Amino acid sequence: MILVGQFDSPFVRRVAIALHHYGHPFERRVLSVFKDFDEMLAINPMGKVPSLILDDGETLFDSRAIIEYLDETAPAERRLAPYQQPERRRVLQIEVVGVTLAEKIYERGIEHNRRAPGTSDPIWRRRLEQQIGSTCEWLEDRLSGDWFFEEGFSRADLAVAVAMQYLERVLPMLESTVRYPRLHAHRLCCESREAFAAVRDARDEALGSGWTPET
Q: Is 7 domain-assigned?
């Protein structure tokens, strides 16, 4: 399989970690949605990452759809979401919130990195920061141990940990490590797992596509 995208993207990194967890060898095609946009459009009509090209040539889009496919085709003992309800619904709800958190962090980063001079809207920036803060508070209140659910590491933990690492890197002035200590400890616990260690955040790839953190 071929994973398309850069590891500075939380969406690409999340899929790569899942691939390692499920034991799938893969190659990577390092393309930026900014500097390689035309090439990206030839792979994904939305011009987004990640894309996963399967061995038979089929291409999957969107991190949630890709991980759903990987989970459904994995051996039962490796799956990261239960099949039974309401347990499955609860895991997927936290996963959706974690993915949405990453999306809001990305949108807030756009205000710093991609707007023409003088065109960034401070009201919109504050709204995004409110959404990020509200989401982190909601997640912090639902985390009491190493994992979100007593059954162990799940897709919920994967989505939230990757989003929090992304938040700490691109928006350090929001002081997430201090404001959300349980989420920070959870992220460090996740980062110690073998699959996470195999897919380190690639800051050099971010800088190469013109993405710089705020201070």
A: yes
pLDDT tens, position by position, 105-160: 999 988 887 787 778 888 999 999 999 999 999 999 999 889 999 889 999 999 99
Rounded Cα distance, 117 and 88, in Å: 45
pTM, full prediction: 0.92
What is d(CA 13, CA 123) in angstroms, rounded to the nearest whole number?
30
Domain assignment present for residue 214? The answer is no
The CA distance from 14 to 16, in Å, is 5
Count of structural domains, the chain: 2
Instruction: Please tell me whether residues 73 and 100 are part of one structural domain.
Output: no
Residue-range definition of the domain harbouring residue 99: 87-193
Q: Which residues contact 15 (CB under 8 A, 6 or more apart)?
A: 3, 50, 52, 63, 66, 67
Which residue type, as a one-letter code, is found at position 73?
Answer: T
